[in-house]
Amino acid sequence: xxxxxxxxxxxxxxxxxxxxxxxxxxxxxxxxxxxxxxxxxxxxxxxxxxxxxxxxxxxxxxxxxxxxxxxxxxxxxxxxxxxxxxxxxxxxxxxxxxxxxxxxxxxxxxxxxxxxxxxxxxxxxxxxxxxxxxxxxxxxxxxxxxxxxxxxxxxxxxxxxxxxxxxxxxxxxxxxxxxxxxxxx
Length: 185
Prior knowledge:
Layout: H1 2-8, H2 17-29, H3 35-64, H4 68-73, H5 76-97, H6 103-113, H7 118-145, H8 147-184
Helix pairs in contact: 1-2, 1-3, 2-3, 2-7, 3-6, 3-7, 5-6, 5-7, 7-8
């Protein structure tokens, strides 16, 4: 179930895969599972699903964004700008965004649609996912040992990451609006 949650998150970003991982590691520490297996299943399922999303976007994304709805979401000029962004900031952007809720699911989509080579996308994606899920497994194990301290840390970290994600969303919304106006002009 943990692996399934980590995989589905790539298709449906609101799925709380992080919670599943924490719970799995928590249970592992209590002797009901093995924390290393929880990590391995979570990480491999998440990365495999991200590659599937990348491949689907690589094969079918361009057609989708040529539809009326696709044009409404992103104008071709905006898609071009995303490609330029990936050319300039690809590896660091992929790496950092895998730590941000919801954005981690968008990384393989836009990397695939903009035709970035999987060989450049996969390493930062896999490393960031390993670090993230490794940290969550570690926190889950610690949580079972010291519940109060971990909940306090997790709440602060989630709040900070939520603020970062909201700032990024606001920036993307401003970019979308401005670049859309430029594209029409």
